[in-house]
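FAQ: What does the model actually see?

It sees only this:
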Amino acid sequence: MTRAAPSGGRPTSTPVSDAEIAEAVRALHTDGITARKAAFSREWVAALDQDVMAAFAEARGRPHGAVGRGPNRWYVEIHPQALRGFAELAGHPWVQAVSAAVLGPDYRIVEVGFDIPLPGAVNQPWHRDFRIPPQTRDDRRLTSLAFNVTTVDTTEDMGPFEIAHGTQFDDGPDFEHGMFPPRSHYPRYEQRAVRKYPQMGDISARSALTIHRGTTNHSDKLRPVLVLGVDGPDATNAIQHSLSMTRDYWQALPESVRRHLDCPLVDELVPISQKHLIEGLVMGEA
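And it is asked to produce this:
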């Protein structure tokens, strides 16, 4: 298992302004997604891609190392120290400022993983990643965020991520498992749908409640996307994940990152057996 030390690299972005964060918060509560261009150098992302592909090969080589999210589409949760750039990602000023502004200063990192649509991946059904919590349904308060970093330049034929803006507050008894809206809702999502074409170095933040789907990958290329999951104090997504790290790795992280980690510290990492199965995605769009 990869046990990368914090790389000590630096983001290559311009300083984060209060106005930029205010706009990101507004977008998260309206569209359900926001982004920052060129947050990292292409060299940093190339190293990230190497680490992701190494983790993918390791996960595919053992039982329960990867979980299907549809035909030719996989999700793998990993330990943070499998990534040389975890400290730079978790400590990026934009990531930290957006997390604090939406979730409060005591937010915590609960998930590190990645999605990989392979060639031949098909349309997923429209879905959200978990049930809407009462704080969001009743008070319209977001309690978690998902940050995404592509490791490749996304093009139309690679099955880009598609998200229906403004649907993070949708809910109803007809949502299967609280996550899958009925087909009668699809026209609304298709009307609001926006395909995203992030490039190497870009980072986005979204509510995982915003209705979305991966689309068909017509290319001969993989489209890996890293996921950093962040919870506010009253969110419970951590129970679906297995984030942990060794004590020496934790001690080497900057204090600005450590204060947002509340995970087991161990002497020896063990491979993660994937827990975050979303059964409704296994077959793709029916």
